[in-house]
Every structure is written in structure tokens, then in C-alpha cells.
Amino acid sequence: MITAGARVAGDGPSPAAEGPLALALIGGTRFAPGRLFASRFRIVSLLGRGGMGDVYRAEDLKLGSTVALKLFVVSPRQRDDPLSRFAREVRLAREIVHVNVCRVFDLGEGEGWHYLSMEYVDGETLASVRQRIGRLPVEKGLDVARQLCAGIEAA
């Protein structure tokens, strides 16, 4: 399965690395593997880094499953209330059930961070496939496009 990818660790500094919630990065990550976050999630590895925060593979100890855990950096300069917006998006996302749409589990706060836990989809990102094999064959590109369109239609 090919998954959509965020900017990955090593792509350069992230805007999320700045600001009041910034912590010292450990080997390119804020949370080292094995660290317990919010008394619930055991960090496994950094999956990606983007402008809104970092995404980790984590074990949800409460539910006994592997999740993707997105930790948001909320800037005090944002004009709207990002947490209300995230909560609305989570409510809407939880109504979508489709094989091509990642399930969203929970929105919460812990240790000064806002987080979103969602389905962990094991697979290769489209960016890494393109880097590995170059241009996608037409049939594979059409297959990916069909899957994306089916997910968008469900939403």
C-alpha cells in the first residue's frame, strides 16, 4: 500500500521546531523511541515532520494498538481557534468509513501538546516510491489516482 507522506525527518528544519513549545531535538526528533507520552502512548519512531507538527508511530497502551500520533504546535499568532477547528475536523473525519481514508481515533492534550491519534497505515509513501523507481508506470499511476478519488468521494 502506498500512503501519503508528510515531510520526513532530515528534510531540514521545521517551523514546528520553533516557538514556545519547542523542545531539544534528540537525533532529529522531539520524542525518542520508548518515551511515554501523555501516560498513554509509547513512541516507536518519527514518521514525518510538517509545518503543523510531528507525526510519530506509537503504541496506544490504552487501546492496545499501533497508531499514528500527530503532535500539533499551536502558534499564539494564529487568529482562529485551531483546537476548535481540529475538533470539528475530527468529528467530520470519524463519520467517514472507507478503505482509502485513514480512520481518526482521538483528539487530546498532554504535556503541553495537542495531539491527534489516527490509524497507522503501514506502507511506502508515494514520494519514496517515486524516488526508488522514478516515474510511475501509467497503470500504477491510474490505480493510485482511482484510490485517491474513491477516498475523496467518500469524504
Would you write up a description of this structure?
The chain is 25% helix and 30% strand. The protein is an alpha+beta fold and 155 residues long. Strand 3 and strand 4 form a beta hairpin. It has a six-stranded antiparallel sheet. A two-stranded parallel ribbon has the order 1-8. The longest helix has 17 residues.
Please describe the structure with a list of short key phrases separated by commas or semicolons.
155 residues; alpha+beta; globular
Describe how the helices and strands are arranged.
Elements: E1 2-3, E2 36-37, E3 41-50, E4 53-60, E5 65-72, H1 82-94, E6 104-110, E7 113-119, E8 124-125, H2 126-133, H3 138-154
Please sum up the structure shown.
The protein has 155 residues and is α+β, with helices and mostly antiparallel strands.
What spatial order of strands do you see in the largest sheet?
2-3-4-5-7-6
How many beta-strand runs? Answer: 8
Structural class: alpha+beta
What is the H-and-E element order?
A: EEEEEHEEEHH
The coarse overall form would be: globular
Q: Quickly count the helices.
A: 3
The profile of the biggest β sheet is: 6 strands, antiparallel
Q: Low-confidence segments, ≥5 residues, pLDDT <50? A: 1-24
Average pLDDT rating:
81
- The amount of helix comes to 10-25%
How far apart lie the N and C ends?
20 Å
| Beta-strand fraction estimate | 25-35%
As a whole number of angstroms, the C-alpha radius of gyration is 16 Å
